[in-house]
């Protein structure tokens, strides 16, 4: 159940996940706004309880009102691959929840992304939450399937934790489709740092029926 | 690799995951601030590219500066179960990335939480990202182990997707320890709505060695 990926036959150097078009000014504006919101998230997670928390919260609500007042996205736009590329919670530059992970083709038929995760993503002290690693891998395996020409949904994902993944350390997330048989697609991936592989995943994906893609 | 949970013997009605003490004013302030930041995140994800995005981003950066200037948490505080309860990316009221899921004992030895996930958590149009479901389940299985008296790390987690989980719909996340043998613990869980079970998970967890707990 990863985010929608291009329909079969659309995957190519023009795959929106792999080679985004130069962003229009509007998208750049949203990315700038999301980056600022991401910094707010990080400072809130790091904050000693400020004496004036209520005042600061009121200021954030006022800005939220301003942003909301500037126009809301119409629902049909959500059902759009370019929109989801920009807004998903893993690689979405327009989504403050996304680290964001930046993903590209790895030159061997798979995909590779990098991110450095801070304290908002913490599980064990000083380390990335295991569920966040699962989130990154589910997404990257979906992109790998898209790059291989399959628009697919996750049927199951198995994530193995080999050693804790440190925060504030650049990590590399790799994904690759390993086989396909009818509508069933298998993909694997890893999260690694200079210290080796920390997390690995394998998954079974089911291609969206062509008449629904 | 879930967030740290209380050491064996500490799990009880006083388990900080299950029965939080009344929050001190400072924690309430941070929770208020995090709630406001969560609303900023939601409005950014919904925003039509505003003409004054750069100005709005500058305002957010100014507030981030104010929050950061009010005092940063000292590193030792991160290695603290109460701190992690408040700041983790799933149930943490102080973490704007967390929905937050609210979890309590289910009366049969397991734990149950509810959340309603909005567009920042979207994968397929109108539905929750599969990796977000994995994140919620990894966390809730860890809490279930804690409630059963085990401080443990995830060795592997297998998540099965039965049907897409709709956004903006209250979902129920359940977790339960099913067995333990030496340091190996097995736990299972589900995410359901009024339409049945959407996602299920099983995992193997390894208890933290008592001398390290």
Automatic annotation (TrEMBL), chains A, B:
One of its GO terms (molecular function) is hydrolase activity. InterPro entries: HotDog_dom_sf, THEM4/THEM5_acyl-CoA_thioest, Thioestr_dom. The keyword Repeat does not apply. It catalyses: (5Z,8Z,11Z,14Z)-eicosatetraenoyl-CoA + H2O = (5Z,8Z,11Z,14Z)-eicosatetraenoate + CoA + H(+); dodecanoyl-CoA + H2O = dodecanoate + CoA + H(+); tetradecanoyl-CoA + H2O = tetradecanoate + CoA + H(+); (9Z)-octadecenoyl-CoA + H2O = (9Z)-octadecenoate + CoA + H(+). It is an enzyme of class 3 (hydrolase). Pfam families: 4HBT. Coiled coil: none annotated. Its main location: membrane. This is Acyl-coenzyme A thioesterase THEM4. It comes from Prauserella marina.
């Amino acid at each position: 159940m990863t985010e929608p990926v291009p329909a079969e036959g659309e995957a190519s150097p023009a795959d929106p996940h792999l080679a985004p078009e130069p962003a229009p000014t509007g998208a750049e504006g949203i990315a700038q706004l999301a980056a600022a919101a991401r910094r707010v998230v990080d400072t809130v997670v790091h904050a000693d309880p400020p004496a004036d928390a209520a005042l600061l919260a009121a200021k954030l609500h006022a800005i939220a009102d301003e942003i909301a007042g500037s126009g809301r996205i119409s629902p049909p736009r959500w059902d759009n691959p370019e929109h989801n590329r920009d807004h998903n919670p893993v690689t979405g530059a327009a989504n403050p929840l996304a680290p964001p992970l930046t993903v590209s083709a790895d030159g061997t038929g798979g995909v590779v992304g990098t991110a450095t995760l801070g304290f908002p993503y913490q599980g064990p002290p000083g380390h990335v939450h295991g569920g966040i690693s699962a989130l990154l891998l589910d997404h990257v395996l979906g992109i790998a399937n898209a790059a291989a020409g399959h628009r697919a949904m996750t049927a199951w994902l198995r994530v193995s934790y080999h050693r804790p993944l440190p925060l504030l350390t650049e990590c590399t997330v790799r994904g690759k489709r390993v086989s396909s048989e009818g509508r069933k697609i298998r993909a694997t991936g890893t999260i690694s740092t200079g210290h080796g592989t920390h997390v690995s995943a394998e998954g079974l994906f089911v291609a969206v029926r062509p008449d629904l893609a």
